[in-house]
Design goal:
Chain A: This is DNA-binding protein. The complex is a heterodimer of chains A (315) and B (384). In chain A, strand 15 and strand 16 form a beta hairpin. The mean pLDDT of chain A is 94. With 315 residues, chain A is mainly beta. Chain A has 3 helices and 18 strands. Chain A folds into 3 domains: 151 residues, no CATH class; 49 residues, no CATH class; 93 residues, no CATH class. Chain B has a single domain, classed as Thiolase/Chalcone synthase (Peroxisomal Thiolase, Chain A, domain 1, 3-Layer(aba) Sandwich), CATH 3.40.47.10. Chain B is 34% helix and 19% strand. In chain B, the strands form 2 sheets. Chain B has a 9-stranded mixed β-sheet. In chain B, strands 5-6 form a two-stranded antiparallel sheet. In chain B, helix 3 crosses helix 13. The mean pLDDT of chain B is 96. Chains A and B meet through strand 1, helix 1, strand 10, strand 12 and strand 14 of A and helix 1, helix 4, helix 5 and strand 5 of B. Strand 14 of chain A pairs antiparallel with strand 5 of chain B.
């Protein structure tokens, strides 16, 4: 049996965060090379500020500026930084309590080597060259030196930040789905039948979702079927692979008990009907891979429509 | 043991609430619910939260960073996950904690800040080895709406009638995102066809919003200075997204949940015994579909109630007097909004969209590929 197929899946989006009054004050401060904290009802100063008091739960309103220098409370060494971390060469992760604050913040210290790090050492912020009102304005911390960076002047309030998020997966098909994908690579449509309820699943699942038993009986299906229902997609959206308008249909292949989603082309969208008989139009053989996209689309066969009763229990 | 909704709170829902952070959005609803219920933070024994999948806002486990903003420090904090039905499931989990005698007063909260992301994108991820056909929730549900129209023989204007009713109801609700008193059948029918047969005006908006309810035990309810909403029955059911023979139009899990709900509430004729219903209708045609699934009408007959005007305020069964999901759709919160609005009706606190003398009301939510169902019945008086 072939090893399960796998392929990369990348997902990314630039999320847009609204900051609200407290975090807006903090981010605006960063744009001015200042660090703003909040004083809670017990008198403790939190830096970064917290939005709601941990004891009374009311919104924070008492804001204080804290120093850009502080003390390392504890630390660990990062010998091999990974993508997206503050520094690309080895550095320390440290909990740093800024002077004037009672709570530590986690950040990177660019100390050169682990032997230069110690609990209790004094550090200062290394600011980004062009602060914009983002947590990344604090490029990292560094051992305290005499040179200080002057705070910047007034800036427009920062009310939003953009948070790009990227996820990288390796998507793996099940053994049963792999057999189906190998079948498609040969121009065949392979399904499986549940040994108990006798329902035929395409793509095969490996287990019947109704009976919960393994499915082992392979069934080859024809590439003709019936449109059970469909929609015409007119709306564009980010990440869309097919240009609208297109007909997204549920195609019940002859002999299957569950529809197979695919595109319908070969007639105007407004002529597609429930019950329409359709046949797969395969791409040229040299373009085939391990994918249902080897079928470019389904086209009307021109045969009379299937009776509603023949697919009514597959809606 | 008995439990009751002591108070509710919700945000002013809008396409973009950029004036607040996610925590600030949640607190707007929570602070209103605490005030409405006559509770202080110290009265709350536990917090139960729900929201739609993390990809919708790109915040992994938001309950971690929100714990202190939600006053959960030193208390149990639970998160519930059931896709679009999560708001309803969150209310039910909170009520179960009270009914089981574990806690006396529980805060339930659900929210979504859709403007931070794009739900169409998040619902249309195309994994390898599949046809890249995903087109959001509308692309998923439109074929099932087409199947309903074919099966029931409903005339085409029923969907537009629901849109007109709900948007006009929304104009009576000061918290609604869309408030369209001037909407007409003609304007709905001339709006863009997005996912044929679903038009733009028959589609829920994308909203930022939150909803909170405080649920108390019998002692808390009896001590309340204001009317409460007694929880008469709750039900949740689940089924797979896809299986051979799945009925997407009238799902078995929804029918089973409704049957259990009516039995638990002692209701034999829901159409006559329920005074108001807040039903999860993200696309207009789901009103007649769920009227049938819930047992308010025989299969294939739900559209006749809508067409006859019986689901308007003043009809036999006002459905979504608040304007419903068609007017405000902060996805994670939408289910709890249905539950809270049903409670507001029997507490007599629904303002301009109050159904006169509502004694018993239904709150309903569904989610996933019509696979999670949650619902409750609340009453002005305790169940005898």
């Amino acid at each position: 049996m072939a090893l399960p197929l796998h392929a990369p899946l990348e997902i990314s989006f630039d999320y847009t965060r609204s900051l609200g009054p407290t975090l807006s004050r903090f981010m605006t401060g960063l744009a001015q090379r200042r660090i703003i904290g909040s004083r809670d009802s017990t008198g403790r100063v939190h830096a970064p500020p917290i939005e709601y008091d941990p004891v009374t739960h009311v919104a924070s309103t008492d804001f204080v500026e804290v120093s850009a220098t502080g003390t390392v409370l504890t630390w660990t060494w990062m010998p091999r930084p990974i993508e997206g971390q503050p520094l690309t060469h080895p550095f320390a992760w440290a909990l740093i309590r800024l002077d004037g604050a009672d709570t530590p913040m986690l950040h990177a210290v660019d100390a050169g080597s682990a032997s230069a790090m110690s609990t209790g050492m004094r550090v200062q912020v290394r600011w980004a060259a062009e602060p914009v009102g983002s947590i990344r304005d604090i490029a990292c911390f560094e051992p305290l030196s005499t040179s200080e960076t002057e705070p910047g002047g007034e800036v427009e309030p920062v009310t939003m930040v953009t948070t790009p998020i990227r996820l990288s997966y390796e998507h793996t098909a099940s053994p049963e789905e792999t057999r189906y994908l190998y079948g498609l690579a040969e121009g065949r449509v392979l399904a499986q039948r549940c040994p108990r309820c006798r329902k035929v699943y395409i793509p095969p699942r490996g287990a019947c979702p109704t009976c919960g038993v393994p499915t082992t009986d392979e069934v080859e299906l024809p590439d003709v079927g019936t449109v059970t229902t469909f929609c015409i997609v007119n709306v564009p959206f980010p990440g869309q692979r097919t240009k609208p308008p297109y007909v997204h249909a549920a195609v019940l292949l002859d002999g299957a008990d569950i529809p197979f989603p695919h595109l319908i082309l070969g007639c105007p969208a407004d002529e597609v009907r429930m019950g329409m008989r359709v046949q797969a139009v395969w791409k040229p053989r040299e373009e085939w891979g391990f994918t249902p996209q080897n079928i470019d689309h389904f086209r009307p066969t021109g045969d009379p429509d299937a009776a509603f009763e023949s697919y009514a229990s597959h809606l | 043991m008995r439990a009751a909704v002591l108070g509710t709170g919700q945000t002013h829902h809008a396409a973009r609430r950029t004036d607040v952070s996610m925590a600030g959005l949640c607190r707007e609803a929570v602070d209103r619910a605490l005030e409405d219920s006559g509770s202080t933070w110290d009265d709350i024994d536990a917090v139960v939260v729900g929201k739609a999948p993390d990809l919708f806002e790109g915040v992994m486990m938001p309950e971690l960073y929100l714990a202190d903003a939600l006053g959960a420090v030193g208390k149990p904090l639970l998160r519930v996950h059931t896709a679009g039905s999560v708001g309803g499931a969150t209310g039910i989990v909170a009520s179960n904690l009270v009914r089981a005698g574990v806690h006396q007063r529980v805060l339930a909260l659900a929210w979504e800040k859709q403007s931070e992301s794009n739900a169409m994108w998040a619902l249309s991820i195309n994994p390898p080895f599949h046809m890249p056909l995903g087109a959001g929730a509308g692309g998923y549900f439109a074929p099932h709406i087409r199947a309903y129209i074919r099966r029931s023989g409903a005339p085409n204007h029923v969907g537009a009638m629901v849109a007109v009713k709900d948007r006009r109801n929304g104009s009576l609700n000061p918290f609604a995102h869309l408030r369209q008193a001037e909407i007409t059948l003609e304007s709905v029918n001339s709006s863009m066809m997005l996912w044929d047969p679903v038009r733009y005006d028959e589609t829920c908006p994308s909203s930022d919003g939150a909803c909170a309810v405080v649920i108390g035990d019998q002692a808390a309810a009896e001590a309340s200075a204001r009317p409460v909403a007694w929880i008469h029955a709750t039900a949740m059911r689940t089924e797979p997204t896809f299986f051979a023979g799945k009925d997407h139009v009238n799902p078995q899990a929804g029918r089973d949940a409704a049957a259990a709900l009516w039995q638990q509430a002692g209701i034999t004729d829901p159409l006559n015994e329920i005074d108001a219903a807040e039903i999860y209708v993200p696309f207009s045609w789901f009103e007649p579909m769920w009227l049938e699934n819930l047992g308010f009408a025989e299969e294939g007959q739900g559209w006749k109630l809508t067409e006859a005007g019986e689901t308007r305020i003043g009809g036999r069964l006002p459905v979504n007097p608040s304007g419903g999901v068609l007017c405000s759709n902060p996805i994670g919160a939408s289910g709890l909004l249905r539950f809270a609005e049903s409670a507001m009706q029997v507490m007599g606190r629904a303002g301009a969209h109050q159904v006169p003398e509502a004694q018993r009301a239904l709150g309903h939510a569904y989610g996933g590929g019509s696979q999670f169902f949650s619902m409750w019945v609340v009453g002005a008086a305790p169940r005898p």
